[in-house]
Amino acid sequence: MPMSESPSGFRIEKLGLIGLGLMGCAIGQAARSRRAAGAVAGWSPSEATRRKASELGAADEIHGRPGPWLAGCDIAIICCGVDKMGLAAAEVAPFLGEGAVLTDVGSAKARIVTDIEAAMDRAGSKARYVGSHPIAGSEKAGPQPEGAVVFDGAWCVLTPSARSSPEAVAKVRGFWEALGMRTAEMAAEAHDRALALCSHAPHMASAALLLLQDERSLALSGSGLRDATRTASGPPDMWAEIAASNAAHLAGALRRLAGLIEALADRVGRAGDPAERAALRDLLEEARRRRESRFPAGGVQGNAASSGRRGTAAGAGSAE
Question: What is the pLDDT of residues 77-89, one digit of tens each?
């Protein structure tokens, strides 16, 4: 029986997933649950991953290598490590049909866009490519039960290049919105600068907070340290790859963070003076205000219902 359209009205006939780890599995589960695709096909070179993804309902068909099964995909999504995306594109591009659109989930776009487009050129592929980054995930790794990654209300940034057709951009946007995401378009470099600040630097800061601890302080730690360092549980190999892919922007963000910490240290050192203590309090109040504005108590992070589905993040809706 033909599958009905997704609640958003968007539906493709076939979705291809290049990688069935955390994100690939989650996308497949969501696409099937929301009826955004008539069929979902996935590929993983790992037999254990294929078996687990099948058990978790990630796809209707799962393959051990790229092949003719890709020819019928309307959209194919590369869901592997950022350092492997160009290689993955080279393997799948020869099988994609002329009307297909290739996208990805990488979190550092400039290098990925270059690598994937170069791979498609070498393969002589007539498929279109549109970079995308669904800003949803987990500190976990590998295929997980449905719900481990929450797409609903989260942002997905599209990074189309001069070679991305309007039709391909619309198709990729429609897919992510069918999963409940809000979408915005940015130039790849603008995306990488922003993500260095709001995602990549916080992960490194989380790691630094744990490296700061000695045996006694770590033993005495409670929810404060636990909550501040949740992302440090992420796979080290993956985060090292992300850091290398966005090295210049991330290094700059970390230097800015170091300057802010140094300024806070100076304020703390002079906090015995009432005026300095008041200045320190003002800095802490500004940080509290920013957090409560972005993550209101009792609210839903990234609630799409309040502001629409596209381009409503401050500065996110226009390319640079």
Answer: 999 988 899 999 9
